[in-house]
Amino acid sequence: MQTQPGVLSRTLSTLTGGRLGRSGAEASETQPAHRPSPTSGTLATPWAKTAATPSTVSTRMQDRLKEKRSAHRRLLSARWGRRALYAAGGVAAAWVLLMSPVFAFDDDNLEASGFGTVVDPADVEAIVAESAGTSLVLLNTAHVSDRLEELVGVKEARVERVWPAGLRVTIDSAEPVAAIPVADGTFVLLDESGTQVAEAEAAPEDLPVVNVPVDAENSRILDGVIAVIDEVPVSLRDRIQDVEAQTEDSIHFVLRDGPRVEWGSAEESALKAQVLLVLLEEQADADVIDVSAPTLPTVS
Fold it and tell me: Is the pTM of this model over 0.90?
């Protein structure tokens, strides 16, 4: 049998006590109203967040990159500027040291000493003057020393820089200790090593004259004589006048205002000199003193 809609509705309402209708109404009343998404901000909802668009992000990144590039350029400019200043300072310092006349050697500022009796100061000055105008930084002092030591009578030469534009030269001269007559009437002057250091027309008064030829045959005899002269004290050396020797063991000489001395060989020369000085005081009137055997000297 077909049931009418109105009768069915009333029957259901009666059975449920009207709760069915009210439930539907309450459900519709308690359903909250639609609210906009937090990310979809509007004028009515200023609290909502605004989503960043791709164009906004791109602009900000470009600005930051520009700032970084600008800062990097400024840093590079400052760095290269400092390097340029350092380079300019180095070039200026190098020019002052190497090219400027401030540090160029002036031969008027030469300090030289130690010429002795045989080294000519003019020869030293001429060699040193060759370096005039050269910067002291570049000046080869060893080369100047070698050139000076080539001079006769120079045993050693020391060259020192005196800033800003001078040199100090100290000569260790080879002083003559004996004069040897030669065939033409002149004299050859020998130092303590037997090396010729000068020539003279007359024998110096303070040097003993050695009557031994300067040749290969008499070289050993001459070496012995020079060794004796070098061993004796200066006070005694200055009194030796004439020295003669036919062999290495027969050296003898005459003292100025004193006796003839038989010396013998060059062995024990230091002891012989001490004995001779004592005998000269004790035997002032002696004509001959023999110290060839220093432990058994004789006087006559």
Answer: no
**If you search the block for the tokens 């590079």, which residue do you land on?**
76
pLDDT tens for residues 227-268? 999 889 988 988 999 999 999 999 999 999 889 999 999 999
Which residues pair with residue 261 across a beta bridge? Answer: 253, 289
- For residue 60, give the amino acid letter: R
253 forms bridges with which residues in the sheet? 243, 261
Three-point CA angle 13, 18, 24, nearest 5°: 105
| H or E element at residue 141 | helix 141-149
Candidates 165, 166, 167, 147; CA nearest to 156 is 147
Q: Which secondary structure element, helix H or strand E, spans residue 236, and what is its range?
A: helix 234-237
Tell whether 193 and 291 lie within a shared domain: yes
Q: Which of 32, 38, 65, 34 is nearest to 51 (CA)?
A: 38
Tokens standing for 6?
């109105």
Q: Which domain holds residue 196?
A: 178-299
